[in-house]
């Protein structure tokens, strides 16, 4: 079993996700109290994939997050750097073109995607600015990025309860359903260390994206960010 540390060494993060691949989707449903499915639907609406468009789904894991884009008629490329996740995804969704790739060194040409999306993965990348720059590079001019990531609840009393859940309740629950509960200790720590909504919007601007905006989901537990390539 393995867990990553907050310096997010790529080999540690990849190994951690390899360990949890088999039960990853189930564990997410349990730990999010069923909200994970609603969040995926919100991402699909925000990306608004159209027939014939090319969508890059980064940190796609087993490919579950990519299915709505394919169903909308887009050509979707699920990409992840955890080979364990990709192997599990290939068993479940053999028709998807699952691709191994590092978000900071994407194996794609310039300007080939109409939309790039990443859900619950940017927080695990060591070089956030480099990853946002790579996503900008592979997106066509006028194309869009949609980021779904854990964030900061907007109501202070709820924020306190949520923080207590992360640090006290989440690890024991993960022990009962996950193949690597230690990975979910990292999850809690990395969420607490992640910037708030305006902070991520500032990082998007710094990387060259324009018109960043966000919408809170579940009271700010998760935020959807969208921006556009000039």
From TrEMBL:
Catalytic activity reads: a 2-demethylmenaquinol + S-adenosyl-L-methionine = a menaquinol + S-adenosyl-L-homocysteine + H(+)
Enzyme class, UniProt record, top EC level: transferase
Q: Which InterPro entries match?
A: SAM-dependent_MTases_sf, UbiE/COQ5_MeTrFase, UbiE/COQ5_MeTrFase_CS
Source organism superkingdom: Bacteria
Positions binding S-adenosyl-L-methionine in this chain are: 62, 80, 102-103, 119
UniProt keyword terms in alphabetical order: Menaquinone biosynthesis, Methyltransferase, S-adenosyl-L-methionine, Transferase
Do the record's keywords include Transferase?
yes
UniProt-recorded name of the protein: Demethylmenaquinone methyltransferase
Q: Which organism is it from?
A: Streptomyces antioxidans
High-level lineage? Bacteria, Bacillati, Actinomycetota, Actinomycetes, Kitasatosporales
Q: What is the gene called?
A: menG
């Amino acid at each position: 079993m393995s867990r990553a540390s907050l310096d997010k060494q790529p080999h540690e993060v990849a190994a951690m996700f390899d360990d949890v691949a088999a039960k990853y989707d189930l564990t997410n449903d349990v730990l999010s109290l069923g909200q994970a499915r609603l969040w995926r639907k919100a991402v699909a609406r925000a990306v608004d994939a159209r027939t014939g468009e090319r969508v890059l789904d980064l940190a796609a894991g087993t490919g579950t997050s990519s299915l709505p884009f394919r169903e909308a008629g887009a050509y979707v490329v699920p990409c992840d750097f955890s080979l364990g996740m990709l192997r599990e995804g290939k068993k479940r969704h053999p028709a998807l073109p699952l691709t191994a790739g590092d978000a900071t060194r994407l194996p794609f040409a310039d300007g080939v995607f109409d939309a790039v999306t990443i859900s619950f993965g940017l927080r695990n990348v060591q070089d956030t600015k480099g990853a946002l720059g790579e996503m900008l590079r592979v997106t066509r001019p006028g194309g869009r990025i949609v980021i779904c990531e854990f964030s900061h609840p907007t109501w202070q009393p709820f924020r306190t309860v949520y923080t207590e859940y992360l640090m006290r309740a989440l690890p024991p629950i993960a022990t009962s359903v996950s193949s690597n509960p230690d990975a979910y200790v990292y999850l809690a720590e990395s969420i607490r260390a992640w910037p708030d909504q305006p902070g991520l919007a500032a990082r998007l601007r710094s990387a060259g994206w324009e018109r960043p905006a966000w919408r809170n989901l579940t009271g700010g537990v998760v935020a959807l960010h969208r921006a556009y390539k000039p």
